[in-house]
Amino acid sequence: MSRILVLYHSNTGNVEAMARLVAVGAESVPGTEVRLRSVAAATPEDVVWCDGIAVGSPTNMGLLAWQMKRFWDEAMLPYWMKVDGKIGCAFTSAGGWGGGMELACQSILTVLMNFGFLTFGVTDYAAKLHTAHYGAVALREPRTEEAAAGCQLLGRRLAEWTAVFCDGRKELHPLVSATERLGAN
Ligand SMILES: Cc1cc2nc3c(=O)[nH]c(=O)nc-3n(C[C@H](O)[C@H](O)[C@H](O)COP(=O)(O)O)c2cc1C
């Protein structure tokens, strides 16, 4: 069983909606248990518990929100050098194109790297003209099909990598399953 934490901060509900979609994507992988937690309700035990983590924040001045940064600065500080090796990824919602979504995702990934997490982006197109190379992104609410697909793909990929690398379920490697899918057609 792979354990996935979807941890988010949201002021007005947009990132929360993304977090729910990321959780749906993770749950689509068999043998995955998902916890969905707002950063206000989360505790370090949630992070210790998980094998894989998706962290979401609104883009604030091109960065993760201070509420999320504070969790890692304060609550998680005693766990520094004790939780290395988890699989991590990022997602964000912003007010506008060019507002720094990828920068915000990178700032989340930087925090996760400082805790020794193994971070990734998604190479596939989640939908037409929509990728999640640095994490899943949405303008405001993820109300378009493309934005929702990006969130779900990120969650699914997180659960797949976690199953492969933390749970030894090599058949869930996305390239193996893609080859099998192609072979089956
Ligand atoms: C303090 C603050 C800073 C923000 N900075 C940015 C920014 O740099 N770029 C951007 O595109 N939107 C920015 N926004 C807009 C939010 O990222 C956007 O409204 C987002 O969808 C909010 O997500 P939420 O509903 O989960 O809180 C900012 C909003 C606030 C309150």
Provide keyphrases for this structure.
two-stranded antiparallel sheet; alpha/beta; binds flavin mononucleotide; Rossmann fold; six-stranded parallel β-sheet; 185 residues
What would you call the structural class? alpha/beta
Low-confidence stretches: none
Number of domains: 1
CATH class: Alpha Beta
- Helix content, binned percent: 40-55%
Tell me about the largest β-sheet.
Answer: 6 strands, parallel
CATH H level: which superfamily?
Flavodoxin domain
State the distance separating the first and last CA atoms: 29 Å
User: Ions, cofactors, ligands: which are bound?
Assistant: flavin mononucleotide
Q: Any overview of this molecule?
A:
With 185 residues, the chain is an alpha/beta fold. The chain has one domain (2-184): Flavodoxin domain (Rossmann fold, 3-Layer(aba) Sandwich), CATH 3.40.50. Helix content is 42%, strand content 24%. The chain is built from 6 helices and 8 strands, in the order βαβαβαβαββββαα. The protein has helices at residues 14-27, 44-49, 66-75, 101-114, 145-167, 174-184; strands at residues 2-8, 32-38, 52-58, 87-94, 118-119, 122-127, 130-132, 136-139. The strands form 2 sheets. Strands 1, 2, 3, 4, 5 and 8 form a 6-stranded parallel beta sheet that branches. β3 (52-58), α3 (66-75) and β4 (87-94) form a beta-alpha-beta unit. Bound molecules: flavin mononucleotide.
